[in-house]
Amino acid sequence: MTRQSATPAAATTELAHPPDRPTRLPRGGTNAVGLTLGLIGDEWNLLILRYAMLGARRYVDWKEALPISDAVLTRRLASLTAMGVFEKAEYQASARRYEYLLTKRGRDLWPVLLCIWAWEAAWVPDHGERLPRMVHQTCGKDFRPVFGCGACGRPAEARDVTGGFGPSGTWSRSVPTATTRRRSQTAGEAGLFPETMALIGNRWSAALLGASFQGAQRFRDFEQWLGAPPTIIADRLRVFCDLGVFAQSPGAERADWPDYRLTEKGRAFFPAVMTAIDWGQRWFRAAEGPALVYTHRACGQDLKIRLTCDQCAAVLRGTEVSVLLD
Q1: Within-domain flag for 54
Q2: Which of 270, 284, 278 is nearest to 305 (CA)?
Q3: Domain membership flag for residue 214
Q4: What is the number of structural domains in the chain?
Q5: How does pLDDT run across 166-197, given as a tens digit for each residue?
Q6: Beta carbons of 37 and 181 less than 8 angstroms apart
Q7: For residue 4, which of 29, 55, 283, 301 is within the disulfide window of CB 3.0 to 4.6 Å?
Q8: Measured between alpha carbons, how far is residue 175 from residues 19, 50, 169, 170, 326 in Å?
Q9: 281: domain CATH number?
Q10: Domain encompassing residue 304
């Protein structure tokens, strides 16, 4: 994804997660899925990354672009730096001024952002500000990413993929530790990622969405799999139905025990989920093995994620994608 070039770093700070090689996670702790959801499930993080992809790298760049307090911006930049997404570099020694440069790990988040933008543009009518245009430099056209399998080259939808937990995958290890990560909004403000945050900006929402992609449909399935209180499950199911992500239908066992099935809108969020999981499992590796494993039904091979341009069918590469604000 093209952005403004950064000036050479004069000095860098030590990172908790080295940005150019995968982080090794300890046994039994939060796995790659939980860490990733904790990062992208924070709306301020997504907004900061959005502008970083457009060239922001200094504190003032984000302050001018976002209605964010100094305290929140400072905390988020420190957290993203500790995660290895940014590298803090001194650019003015006399005043101790720093810039935050996207690392290889940070730049590698571009497929996640593209899929979120594409889903919001296609399925969410109201935004507090306009979404950026995505232009594929190879064909010169505005585009939307097409999710597919790199092993066989064919497109893949949610129903085309099967899988589940791997060696480090349990519900308790995959749920982010924070309870909610939505930014405060003024009355009437829709936000840039309003429904994305409704799906993954709450730890139980993210877990419930993941359970649905693994086949959960009944209330008791969600309750037993996630271990969440019934009131929380009921509230999240109501929100998902209101958003049109789930559709409620009479249950097979009893009509008053409804099933909750993903709608077309819900299934369309699958690429955003899968690119996020793919990023997380490449950059955060548990000692026991991957948290989630998936197979593409059409070819029978492990799913290798590939995004292509819906206009020219070429494979998308970060260096060949421009994100523009007209």
Answers
A1: no
A2: 278
A3: yes
A4: 1
A5: 999 998 899 886 544 555 454 334 467 889 99
A6: no
A7: 55
A8: 23, 24, 10, 9, 37
A9: 1.10.10.10
A10: 149-309
